[in-house]
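Quick question about two entries, pasted in order.
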Amino acid sequence: MKRTLLLTSILLLQLSSIFAQNSARVIDTRHDLFSAGSWSYFDSAHYTYSGSRGGIDPESSSAANYDQGLRLIPSGIAWATDSRTTKTYDASDRELTSIVQVMSGGNWLNYSKTYNNYDANGDLIESGGQGWDSVGAVWRDGEIFTNTYDANHHRVTSIGDNHYSHYKSMDSLYYNGSGQMIINIYFTYDSLTGYQYAAMTQYEYNAQGKQTKMIQYTRNAGVWENYQIDSTTYTGTDPTTSVAIIWTSGTWQTGHRTTYEYDAMHNDTLSTYYLSDSLHQGWRPSSRSIAVYNGTNDRTLMTQQQYSNNTWQNSQQTAMTYNNTHGELLYIIRTWSAGAWLDNTKYESTFNSNGYKTSILLSNYTGGSWVPTGRYYYWYEDVNGISEVKKNIDTKAYPDPCRDKFEIAYSADKAGAATLRLYDLSGKLVSTTETSTVTGDNHISWEAFALSGGMYIYELSIPGATGRGKVMVE
């Protein structure tokens, strides 16, 4: 389980594919868990960048194109370094290497590495993954891909060589005059006979450049055999029907079919999936998705249904709400049971004034109410280094130790809301108080008479800054 969590966290740190540069970039994240009625820290991450490089993965709100990502885990009253990912780039900001290291016994130990090599035209000619051999103290190759390109920068060959499984393969690609792939031939490799045909796919397009047909073949006993044909029809640029037929026992058999309907804004409002009905020589409905959109084309409701006993039966539903910049504020999953929709899972998000996601709260509906399970926080800076991250500020708790009451003294650069959270040494949230901050010197009082004796950790959050400290209650 520990290794799974490590690999998951490393994967999150590595979510840094090349994205278009944003005006902001993630510099801090934090993940909390809710259990047995209280919150506790799970992990946090800090990212650093060079120059104006870096941005935000629009799908996950994670950091992209950073120099180093540092993962921290709670350890007593402090954060302990757990792992880090360090990246290098070329002069065009293309990622060259990404090295993951884990902290052990106060030392950084190599764990894994990925690398990319480009030619003078900027085409990716080699990429690979490596694992660290601690016995030999060397990097061992994992899977390596090498590519070649034509004069138009279209990839024409791609060789995959897996040094772990000793499996090697190659794709050979062909294009039409518009740069669209029309043939992809897949080869497997045998050490005795070399590359051998294995499969082939052909593609056809309409006058608008939309793919209308995908024809698949397999290689058997030195002969190409039919496998499957997927055909798509369009109304304008919208696909309306997709049909798959499968080669079975020497004849084409109908496989499955999907139809699509749209509103005036080309939003997909209904997609219906059918299976072949050999008994009635037609199509049998299987499932469908019904979507509803608001006036700004945001999907607000998606209902999934299954076809059973000659009628459509509700299965699952998702409901979404948005802010005025299309940021998804609320995402609720419901399931159908005993003739009614039952709440299941909820995601609530907040955004800053620039439209970037600042938090996600995850909850499950249990025992008639929503129970939180986890939350994520994100802090940003713009590419000029102007930080929205909650920078550290000096705080002081007094008297320390205390009995009935203590105060937190601090100074703020600007006025706004203030939140003070108190945790015990296990990281569990004990209490929270909300108040306000003025520009300049501030004091927050905390009644401690209800607290058990012992050491506590406080966390103060104010506009643009955060402060942490400890206080002893007698």
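Here is the second entry:
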Amino acid sequence: MTLEKYGKEETILRVNLIALIPARNEAEVIAKTISSVVDAGMPAENIVVINDGSTDQTAEIAKSLGVVVFNNKVNLGKAKSVTKVLRHIFSQPRYKDLTHVSFLDADTLVDSKYFSVVRKRLLADAKEVEEARKKGTNKKPISILCGRAKSLPHNGWTAFRAREYWISYAIYKPGQARIRTTTVAPGCASTYSVEALKYVMWTDDTVVEDMDATLQVALADGIIAYEKDAIVRTQDPSNLRDYVGQLGKRWYAGSWQSMGKHHLLWPASGITRYFGLLSYILLSLYLTIFRPQYLSLALGSLTVSAYIVSLLLIEMERFHSYLFPMHKWGPKYSRWRLGWYCRATHGEPFLYIGTVLFVSLRYPEYLPWMIGGIFFEAVVFASLAAVFERRLDILLYSPIYPFINILNLALFVWKLPNIFGRKKSGRRDWYSPERYAMKTKTD
């Protein structure tokens, strides 16, 4: 089954949205989240809060604000809760004209223009699809529209996350959308078409339901777009315990789980499954040809090396698509494209580790170059993010970023075995970092 049928159907030029907010024990932040959604132009009756067996006042607070609340008597987990509520929504006459569902997190502050930007983009896309249909060509409509998340300021941990968000949304997301290799739509800022939601199977066999759902749509050849002006602000881990729990136990573990589940890190069979590993080994040997001091300086920056790899992938894909228009293959090409991208980007840190170890052991006199590269990268990217995000704290905390990058790399490698253990890792509990005070202003 694919999403091809949806792309060939007559498009209705309207966008009817509701906002869906899954929550568990979010009494501290849910009121401000709902208020920001209302202030952004979403009527309270079109806001649906899923209360998954909360033991605090989450449901009572949400109800007092006039939104629709679905209560689970017991904790089912996010995936099962979303499935249950969506089935109910799709069966109700009042939602028969619904075209899209905007997913938000319970700790999200929505920009005042968020829904107007989303509607404008989706309506423009619907018009393009209709024009293409009239001309006898097939242009698929957007299945998922990804917004832009920003981290709310609090301390050094959240400043680092703000820098990472800037790098991601300034470099990766636009490129991924262009070559159709988006692997995760942010749970705090994603709008799904109803047709895509009816296709997606929300399962609890990974700890990142959002990535699993995104990959299902991408592998079905659905269109996943990015809108930089659809902005939300969200809370991030603000201490070491929460950071390790959120990145290690959830984001990185779930990333490995989801890619293993969908067989994106290696082909299902054949000798080509070893091609990725061989290419990394050959590339590592090739890199040692260069002057070690310059190589060490470059290797000092994990972000820069990942940035270069991503840019090369984007440009190679563009060149490749010109020579071989395999987009006509549909879902078959989607799997090839996504698998190729995932193997390259997720193999890069291991290439990085191997080359760093080689240079350190073979040319220890160049370790200062490598250390210099680490701190140079931290200051340069922090400066850029601080300017574009207009946040001085991103630059002020830059001296600690190299150490957090090392922690990230360790967590990423530590969670590699989750590729083989996804069925044992499905959860019914929710992982939420410690909440801190949120400002309602979202300018």
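Reply: Residues 295 and 323 are 32 Å apart (CA to CA). DSSP finds 16 helices and eight strands in the chain. Hope that helps.
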